[in-house]
């Protein structure tokens, strides 16, 4: 395949998100402007100007009209997707790390980093249909664990919130009462920081990637560990194919590979694994730096990867990708 | 009869069949066979066969072969199509057509399958063809003269060389026992497979990647400057090789005369043994056998 290279960001990428219909790709990076691209040919549509710090995460509503972005400038902003206008700004006392719209886009879960004496916390905000009616107060604030929470997502039917972070423990919280319902098992769980979390297309299971060079597949309701995928590199980003049983892991620095020469310069690869057999299918090379973000198009026929090198690489699969057999 | 035959030029005019004679069926040369279209087949090839009259008035058959290829069609929903027409905003407003923000990669990137579990069929095919004189020919190794691809041992023109090979076999035996004792039993001396490392998870059943210690082949009577790449090149035609090892004397840097090759598939290891045992390589006759007592 011929990946499409998009160099719109000058700083490393932090997050990638496709909209529900798979025709738009939103990219967040450490430069302060999230960007939206057309997902078929990589043409840039626009940028959202307004943040003053690195943008860590974003989410887009189901109808692709609202974008929510979380940034290190201690704000979370709501944008009009079409023209880049800022609709609302939520202010916090510490950098915002992760944002996620609920099913139905009426609520959003936002996590903030620990900052000075403040510990990390999870905020639930209500999102109004009409942006002029938007209020800034949180519906619920959960005091988080020690360390940063890297990702928090909604559970099935918005009844729970799943969070994972630097303390390597995955937690399931009740979204109405804020009670901690479940924690992942320490022995079988990750050994160090969980960097990324991706839900399956149907929301029944999710994948976490960690700096302990592995990714784990969990059941979303019972938090039982289903599968583990082992790589040689710390995992910074994970994604699951919506149509095939494939998981993709994107990783970081492989110290041993630093000195080896390769004819092609981009050695960092996105590794594909068979979801059920836990076996490596292959890798897609090309990035010049560790891969920080991965996203699959909802139609499963293409995926995008964002790296430390500031490039977004959009890959449309060859037909024989769909016939891969182990 | 309304057919105008007064024109000297035999070029046919638009004839109306209703005005034809009753002698239909004879003089229908002016009518052309209908156009035939063989639709796009699985390769997208479409053939259109047309019949025409050329300038000389001869009936000609024109066959047009086209390949119909469907480019990746982005089947966009109505909303997506609307979004396609949105005006640019933010930093994209100043974009001109020549901006190089979005480029298609010049390199063809493939999903590279990992080496050990799956072999690259194209690679092994090419290497195999290189060795064999013609595709499908068996690799013939004569044990007496070591010439490959020419004749079998029984048909060796240099039959008087049979004696020296036996003495050769005596020599590797003492070195082979040394090899057997120095190397670890499974032909892997310092490498500890992940399945046997501390904290490893045992996989049930024979995992192709981990269990190829059973498919280990010992090669003895190697020349001094034989190294791992040489062994790999020699054994690769038989199948995917997961590991090669040549025992090197650290002081002199030369090969100690033996090495191990781990195949992914047992059958291929067996074939390699049958074919390469007695093969002449770099002036020495190789001895190739199972590394462990015959694993059956």
From TrEMBL, chain A:
Subcellular location: Cytoplasm
Cellular component annotations (GO), alphabetically ordered: eukaryotic 43S preinitiation complex; eukaryotic 48S preinitiation complex; eukaryotic translation initiation factor 3 complex, eIF3m
Superkingdom of the source species: Eukaryota
Keyword terms of this UniProt record: Cytoplasm, Initiation factor, Protein biosynthesis, Repeat, WD repeat
PROSITE patterns in alphabetical order: WD_REPEATS_1 (PS00678), WD_REPEATS_2 (PS50082), WD_REPEATS_REGION (PS50294)
One Pfam family matching this protein: EIF3I
CDD domains: WD40 (cd00200)
Subunit structure: Component of the eukaryotic translation initiation factor 3 (eIF-3) complex.
Function statement: Component of the eukaryotic translation initiation factor 3 (eIF-3) complex, which is involved in protein synthesis of a specialized repertoire of mRNAs and, together with other initiation factors, stimulates binding of mRNA and methionyl-tRNAi to the 40S ribosome. The eIF-3 complex specifically targets and initiates translation of a subset of mRNAs involved in cell proliferation.
Protein family membership: Belongs to the eIF-3 subunit I family.
Name used for this protein in its record: Eukaryotic translation initiation factor 3 subunit I
UniProtKB/TrEMBL annotation, chain B:
UniProt-listed Gene3D superfamilies: 3.30.70.330
Compartment(s) of residence: Cytoplasm
Subunit structure and binding partners: Component of the eukaryotic translation initiation factor 3 (eIF-3) complex.
Protein name (Swiss-Prot/TrEMBL): Eukaryotic translation initiation factor 3 subunit G
Function noted in UniProt: RNA-binding component of the eukaryotic translation initiation factor 3 (eIF-3) complex, which is involved in protein synthesis of a specialized repertoire of mRNAs and, together with other initiation factors, stimulates binding of mRNA and methionyl-tRNAi to the 40S ribosome. The eIF-3 complex specifically targets and initiates translation of a subset of mRNAs involved in cell proliferation. This subunit can bind 18S rRNA.
One annotated GO biological process: formation of cytoplasmic translation initiation complex
One cellular-component annotation, GO: eukaryotic 43S preinitiation complex
RRM domain span: 215-293
Listed HAMAP family: eIF3g
UniProt region (Disordered), positions on chain: 1-20, 112-131, 167-217
Species: Cephalotus follicularis (Albany pitcher plant)
Signal sequence coordinates: none
GO molecular function: RNA binding; translation initiation factor activity
Compositional bias (Low complexity): 177-190
Biased composition (Basic and acidic residues): 112-126, 207-216
């Amino acid at each position: 395949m011929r990946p499409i290279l998009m160099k719109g960001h000058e700083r490393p990428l932090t997050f990638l998100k496709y909209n529900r219909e798979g025709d738009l790709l939103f990219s967040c990076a450490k430069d302060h402007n999230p960007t939206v691209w057309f997902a078929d040919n990589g043409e840039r549509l626009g940028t959202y100007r307004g943040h003053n710090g690195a943008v860590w995460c974003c989410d887009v509503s189901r109808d692709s009209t609202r974008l929510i972005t979380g940034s290190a400038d201690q704000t979370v902003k709501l944008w009009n997707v079409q023209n880049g206008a800022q609709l609302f700004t939520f202010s916090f006392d510490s950098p915002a790390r992760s944002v996620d719209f609920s099913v139905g886009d009426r609520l959003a879960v936002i996590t903030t980093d620990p900052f000075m004496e403040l510990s990390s916390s999870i905020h639930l905000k209500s999102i109004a249909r009409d942006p002029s009616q938007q209020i800034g107060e949180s519906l619920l604030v959960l005091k988080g664990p020690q360390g940063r929470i890297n990702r928090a997502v909604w559970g099935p039917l918005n009844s729970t919130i799943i969070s994972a972070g630097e303390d390597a423990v995955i937690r399931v919280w009740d979204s109405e009462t804020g009670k901690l319902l479940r924690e992942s098992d320490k022995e079988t769980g990750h050994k160090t920081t969980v960097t990324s979390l991706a839900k399956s297309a149907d929301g029944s299971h999710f994948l976490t990637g960690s700096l302990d060079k592995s990714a784990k597949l969990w059941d979303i309701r019972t938090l039982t560990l289903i599968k583990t995928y082992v790589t040689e590199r710390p995992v910074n980003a994970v994604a699951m194919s919506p149509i095939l049983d494939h998981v993709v892991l994107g990783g970081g620095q492989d110290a041993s590979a630093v000195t080896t020469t390769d004819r092609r310069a981009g050695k960092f690869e996105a590794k594909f694994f068979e979801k059920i057999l836990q076996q490596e299918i292959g890798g897609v090379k090309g990035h010049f730096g560790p891969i920080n973000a991965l996203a699959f198009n909802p139609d499963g026929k293409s995926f995008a990867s964002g790296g430390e090198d500031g490039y977004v690489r959009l890959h449309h699969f060859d037909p024989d990708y769909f016939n891969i057999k182990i | 009869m309304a057919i105008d035959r007064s024109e000297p030029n035999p070029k046919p005019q638009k004839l109306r069949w209703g005005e034809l004679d009753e002698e239909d069926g004879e003089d229908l040369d002016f009518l052309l066979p209908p156009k035939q279209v063989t639709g796009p087949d699985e390769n997208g090839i479409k053939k259109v066969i047309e019949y025409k009259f050329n300038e000389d008035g001869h009936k000609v058959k024109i066959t047009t072969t086209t390949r119909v290829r469907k480019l990746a069609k982005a089947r966009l929903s109505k909303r997506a199509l609307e979004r396609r027409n949105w005006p640019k905003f933010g930093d994209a407003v100043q974009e001109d057509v020549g901006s190089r923000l979005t480029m298609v990669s010049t390199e063809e990137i493939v999903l590279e399958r990992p080496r050990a579990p799956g072999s690259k069929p194209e690679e092994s095919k090419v290497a195999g063809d290189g060795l064999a004189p013609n595709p499908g020919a068996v690799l013939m190794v004569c044990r007496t003269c070591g010439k490959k691809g020419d004749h079998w041992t029984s048909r060796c023109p240099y039959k008087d060389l049979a004696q020296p090979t036996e003495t050769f076999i005596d020599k590797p035996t003492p070195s082979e026992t040394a090899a057997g004792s120095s190397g670890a039993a499974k032909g892997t001396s310092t490498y500890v497979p992940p399945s046997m490392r501390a904290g490893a998870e045992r996989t049930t059943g024979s995992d192709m990647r981990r269990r190829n210690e059973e498919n280990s082949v010992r090669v003895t009577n190697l020349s001094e400057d034989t190294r791992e790449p040489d062994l790999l090149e020699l054994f690769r035609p038989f199948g995917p090789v997961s590991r090669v090892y040549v025992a090197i004397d650290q002081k002199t840097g030369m090969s100690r005369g033996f090495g191990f090759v781990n195949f992914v598939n047992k059958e291929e290891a067996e074939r390699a043994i049958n074919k390469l045992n007695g093969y002449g390589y770099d002036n020495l006759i190789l001895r190739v056998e199972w590394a462990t007592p015959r694993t059956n």
